[in-house]
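Table S2 (text version). Query chain:
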Amino acid sequence: MARFAVTAAIFCTGVLLTCIETNAQSIPKEIASRVELYAIPSVTLSDQQFLTGDANGKQVAVAGEFRVAQGAGRLPVVVMMHGSGGVNGTGEAWVHQFNSMGISTFVLDGFSGRGITATSTNQPLLGRLNLIVDIYHALDILAKHPRVDPNRTVLMGFSRGGQAALFASENRFQKLWNKSGLHLRRISRSIRTARRPMSTTPTSSIVRSRYSTVRQTTTTWLQAARPLSSA
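Corresponding structure-token output:
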């Protein structure tokens, strides 16, 4: 009887471990393997201060959510900057799509830490150039992260965030504010040029357009990118 009980216990344990392993293997690809939350030191500036490199603004901490996609080693990352409505369900859909492709995501929230919910009906609540500073500070984190491939890091913006994504790749702004070591280059200047040949530069920016176009553009660039030295 004792031998039967021991045998039964071993059998049940084996079944349990098999079920756990099976469940782990069946987790949908859009579910991140790890989620990290960051309070990112940044600053709130007037547009004049930003343009002249004057960092004497109001210190603030903005939020960042890093979802590490399923996979091993250093993975490609899409940094996402929201629009005037703040972080919302639209961005969440993109996060799941990229994670399902094995691409990690870093979602920035440039509003909540500043006590702002949205600027849709009152754009002067926050100078448009502040989101660029937030992006550069997010790159400070990603540049040092062991799960990030710095040669396959893409910046994506929505509406107001799309403007920030474009301006963040301007060399003069990077010289003033980007201290991460990741040099941003622009994939396309507008939606209409999104299908032009893309440069395999260390880090690039894209603008939100139709779903299929952006997905194809991002995927093609991330797959084609190869290690280059930062400018």
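Notes on Table S2: The mean pLDDT is 79. Residues 2-25 form the longest helix (24 residues).
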